[in-house]
Amino acid sequence: MPPPPAARAKVLAAFTEILVTTGERAATLDAVADRAGVSKGGLLYHFGSKDALVDGLVEHLTELITADVATMRAAPEGPVAYLLRTSSDVDAEFDRSYLAVAELARGAYPHARGALDTAERAWTDAVTEAVGDPAVARAVVLLSDGIYHRTSLGAAPPELDELLELVRRLGSTPAA
Amino acid sequence: MPPPPAARAKVLAAFTEILVTTGERAATLDAVADRAGVSKGGLLYHFGSKDALVDGLVEHLTELITADVATMRAAPEGPVAYLLRTSSDVDAEFDRSYLAVAELARGAYPHARGALDTAERAWTDAVTEAVGDPAVARAVVLLSDGIYHRTSLGAAPPELDELLELVRRLGSTPAA
DNA sequence: GTCTATATTTGGATAGAC
DNA sequence: GTCTATCCAAATATAGAC
Question: Where in the numbering of this chain does the HTH tetR-type domain appear (chains A, B) (predicted)?
Answer without folding.
Answer: 5-65
